[in-house]
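Input sequence (791 aa), recorded before submission:
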Amino acid sequence: MALLNIGDQVPADGVLVTGHSLRIDESSMTGESEPVRKDSKRPFLLGGCKVEDGYGVMLVTGVGTNTEWGQVMATLSQDIAEETPLQVRLNGVATFIGKIGLTVAAIVFIMLFIRYFVQDFKKSDKPLAVVKRIVGIFSVAVTIVVVAVPEGLPLAVTLTLAYSMKKMMADQCLIRRLPACETMGSITTICTDKTGTLTMNQMTVVKAFVAGELRDGDDFSSFPDNVKSLILHGIAHNSSGSVFKSKEGAWEVSGSPTEKAILSWGLKIGMDYEALRSKVNVLHVEAFNSVKKRAGVAIKLETGEVYVHWKGAAEIILEMCDRWVDVDGTEGPLDERKALEFKNVIAGMAASSLRCVALAYRKLDPAEVPVSEEERATWNMPETNLVLNTIVGIKDPCRPGVREAVATCQVAGIKVRMVTGDNLLTAKAIAQECAILTPDGVALEGKTFRNLSDHERLLTARRLEVMARSSPTDKLLLVRTLKELHELVSVTGDGTNDAPALHEADIGLAMGIAGTEVAKESADVIILDDNFASVVKLVRWGRAVYANIQKFIQFQLTVNIVALSINFIAACRSENVPLNAVQLLWVNIIMDTLGALALATEPPTDELMKRPPVNRYDPLITNVMWRNIIGQAAYQITVLLILYFRGPDVLRLKGNPARINAYNNTIIFNAFVFCQLFNEINSRKPDKLNIFEGILQNRMFCAVLFVTTILQVMIVEFLKRFFKTTRLSWRYWLVCLGIGFTSLIFGLLIKLIPVPQKPLFRMKSKQHGKHKRHSKKHSHGDSLISEESTV
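Predicted structure, token format:
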């Protein structure tokens, strides 16, 4: 047993057994802002909620993982770290390249080792010379391995993700899990809430159907007094909000957005809130219930008359009424013809994307009301034979830019689905206003989707664009169904009971303003301004991350192939390789640290949102990249081999053989580095001819090119002993610069070559683990684990 008083937190799940009715704030669990009444009819209590009013004794029925809160947290703790699609592909690329490098290094070592013992071993009889020669052969093999192994890939990915995460903060996106940066770029569908995300959550009454007349605009002051009095009593007393005066003397309204809208409307039509509240005795309050979608209050006037006022979803309140108030204040029968008229009014408001709320009342015989407070605590107020008073249409305007953001998603191949608790007509109207609902799209209620068979649900989910009157369980079911269709799903949520859906989705997006702490803990990203437009910015950055990593891979593979080929061919000829280990270490720094820094900081472009999402079956290295890599590598290898074999003759180098060889190797090293610098510019735009577009806006890229050039000059001219280089005359500096610049021109010519759509190269990637649906971390790589992976 546990005793509960005002302000207490419910310690565990349980049942109210004795005491007055309680008003419980369940916002931490359900996201509902309205307190919920608990009594003998509704005795179940959820642990973690707060007692707003009343007292009582509860019987504890569950603690720890046996509570609703515990089950939610247990679901969240099932997170098993799995690699994202990009990480799986990168591992495949790194493993593939590493194996090639090790194979080539082994071949070179064996070949040089055999050559030495066959040709040169007899010429040297000193053990120290033999050991020195073997160490030299081994160092050549190690140099090849150093060139081949792409140890810069993890650094490039980390730099790209970290830089993007910092930039996303400026776009109101707080990244909680770093891999979410790139995964968001592959999202194929977004399931978004309506209120506060697509709309501004600033509700205003813009229409009212009173006494058989539909009124528009802000002027509602001409209502008949007898009708207005009933309306004002219903507004003033049947509300969880409040009205008070500010320090400046102006009226201010507090409460949920819906309550604020109705109270503000009451003030416009002449409501004296304080006077009305002071002249009545509140007998009983039925707090808003998210299941019944209505709230009620019983009041006793100074005259002794007792009234019950109900307020809630218009279609639900209408079903509770059998009369309506005419223009002269008389009550008329609500027959089928009149009921149809009211239904048409509700439908018309909903079609105009208005939330419809109805007010109704019933005059009671004082004898019907329990006398004692204890009896009233468990009293069920009359819910039938009510008199329909008014129907108001509340407008929650769409956020500026939402329609454009949705259109951007559609162009980008991303399906936007709206999941809301509003009625179907209002949801469809808002969806059409936001350009979410298309002519071929499906809009239905959560219970309809829930009751479909598995096969029907899969078929419906493909075309589903609006889910109305949905619960968090319906949202979770939708996410799981979409993942069964191999969609990469992003979902928004703000309540604690949204946590399972946020956790199940590939990317969970919690709302920073309206979201509960549990929802935020379950999410990968927190949208700080609760704005759908920020979600689109997140997608844009996610695609930029993926594109930047592809640019870096194209750049690094070109360097690897060229360096590996030059040293391998040179090693086959002799042990004198033109690119020594120290020089290749510098090249690795260019590739890994500086290259990653330059290409990782490329900002997103509008072209990224004109492409379809990256399919989980698509190769990481595209045909366009292979074209650029092979073409650029062919040019560089050809030029550098010409310098290696015929350089002294072509360049007319003079001096003793050792000096000529040192001079020629320095020119090869210098030309090789400048080829990479200019190829770095080529890599900025793998599929565009204008490679200089926006280059000055990326200060980091320009700074990296400048610093690399300065350091290269210092290495050749001043660090020649350490790097085994020779100072070059200005003439040969121009030669190296010209060779590098030509790679820029050659790169442009390569891009004119068309490429097929079918991937040129495929490689099977064997990944551990089975395909699992219960965890989003498994779902990231489900197809990559169970299917053939292309790199």
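Checked by second reader. Confidence is low (pLDDT under 50) at residues 763-791.
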